[in-house]
UniProtKB/TrEMBL annotation:
Catalytic activity: 2-formamido-N(1)-(5-O-phospho-beta-D-ribosyl)acetamidine + ATP = 5-amino-1-(5-phospho-beta-D-ribosyl)imidazole + ADP + phosphate + H(+)
GO cellular component: cytosol
Family membership: Belongs to the AIR synthase family.
Protein's name according to its UniProt entry: Phosphoribosylformylglycinamidine cyclo-ligase
EC number(s) from the headed UniProt entry: 6.3.3.1
GO molecular-function terms, A-Z: ATP binding; phosphoribosylamine-glycine ligase activity; phosphoribosylformylglycinamidine cyclo-ligase activity
Main location: cytoplasm
CDD domains listed in its UniProt record: PurM
Superkingdom as given in the UniProt entry: Bacteria
Keywords from the UniProt entry: ATP-binding, Cytoplasm, Ligase, Nucleotide-binding, Purine biosynthesis
Residue stretches making up the PurM-like N-terminal domain: 50-165
GO BP, one annotated term: adenine biosynthetic process
Localization in the cell: Cytoplasm
């Protein structure tokens, strides 16, 4: 029995608005679909033809799920929703490439207080654009209206993705050896981590997202919504290169927990590395926010990426070629440390994170100007 739409509308749920949002996003979603996707948009489940995996000797499925944290509050505050979708894809898909996996499919979930079709379509179009850029098929999603739980202009987004990697090409600590080089890949900004601290600093200083900052060259809201950089396709292309791919031993996505903790997660237990602060200068937005909050850059290392979005751990003889290839693909990269297995005490080091007993990492030196 179908529920009377007018009765549901009295409770604050507008199913017709949801249908309009789907129509607005359909073409963008379709652009992410290759011949492997079956059924199109609107089914109860997304379908992906996995027969291509027959070419793998031992395919391992990689999966990841995430959201974008309180960055959505800034998007809502300045009514700009066309980039938050890229943030979601970056948080999810760039975790999958860390193990060397190629992303296959992604689904999204949007919970909101009120379905505004144009807003929902903006969010999903951003997801679709980023999925297209990373070679990921957006095969399904859900928009849920939660009146009474969320305000009319509030929403949250989450996503999940699945990828595949050949077992003997799996990246991780098991490949890392003494003398490997740690390569830093530049971030575009905060990406999608540490925004609770950002918002706390701005609130304590009575700064509005619509306020203009001369130091940053724009309004705070615009600068803070800089989309998360997508590393998946450039890294997959290098991994597939017969000359360079074998030299990559591990990758680390610098997300929640900051620089040292995330690098430590992909180093083998007993190994260590020192990240050289003198090798880069944190972006102006990091410097400005730490100064505004009365903090030091060093004190923010456990919350913000400070300009490093990903690490590549590679053999010393392949490091230069990998850096040159990344720079050619528009991702500024540089050597920032080396891995050692020599015995030492780990005072002042961070060891592992998120339940992983990995290696030990600390940052040394002073940041470049």
């Amino acid at each position: 029995m179908t529920e009377n739409p007018s009765i549901y509308a009295q409770a604050g749920v507008d199913t017709a608005a949801g249908d309009i949002a789907v129509e607005l996003m359909k073409s963008a979603v379709a652009k992410t679909h290759g011949p492997e996707v079956m059924g199109g948009v609107g089914g109860f489940a997304g379908l992906f033809d996995a027969s291509a995996l027959k070419s793998y000797d031992r395919p391992l499925l990689a999966t990841s799920t995430d959201g974008v944290g309180t960055k959505v509050a800034i998007a809502q505050a300045i009514d700009k929703h066309d980039t938050i979708g890229q943030d979601l894809v970056g948080m999810v898909v760039d975790d999958i490439v860390v193990v060397g996996a190629k992303p296959l499919v992604m689904t999204d979930y949007i919970a909101c207080g009120k379905v505004v079709p144009e807003r929902i379509a903006d969010i999903v179009r951003g997801i679709a654009r980023a999925c297209e850029e990373t070679g990921t098929a957006l095969v399904g999603g859900e928009t849920a209206e939660h009146p009474g739980l969320l305000k009319a202009d509030e929403y949250d987004v989450a996503g999940a993705a699945v990828g595949v990697v050949e077992a003997d090409k799996l990246l991780g600590p098991q490949r890392v050896t003494n003398g490997d080089v740690v390569i830093a890949l530049a971030a575009s900004g905060f990406h999608s981590n540490g925004y609770s601290l950002v918002r706390h600093i701005l609130a304590r200083n009575d700064v509005l997202y619509t306020d203009h900052s001369n130091e940053l060259g724009g309004t705070y809201g615009e600068v803070l919504l800089e989309p998360t950089r997508l590393y998946t396709m450039p890294l997959l292309e290098i991994l597939a290169d017969p000359q360079l791919g074998h030299g990559i031993h591990a990758l680390s996505h610098v997300t929640g927990g900051g620089i040292a903790a995330n690098l430590a997660r992909v180093l083998p237990e007993g190994s260590w590395s020192e990240v050289d602060r003198t090798s880069w200068s944190p972006l102006p937005v990091f410097r400005h926010l730490t100064e505004l909050g009365g903090h030091t850059l060093e004190s923010a290392e456990g919350a913000w990426n400070l300009g490093i979005g990903m690490f590549v751990i590679a053999s010393s003889d392949s490091a230069k070629g990998i850096i040159d290839a990344l720079n050619a693909k528009g991702i500024e990269s540089w050597v920032t440390g080396r891995v050692s297995t020599e015995a030492r005490d780990f005072v002042g080091f961070e060891q592992g994170a998120k339940g992983i007993n990995g290696g030990a990492v600390r940052l040394t030196g002073a940041y470049a100007n």
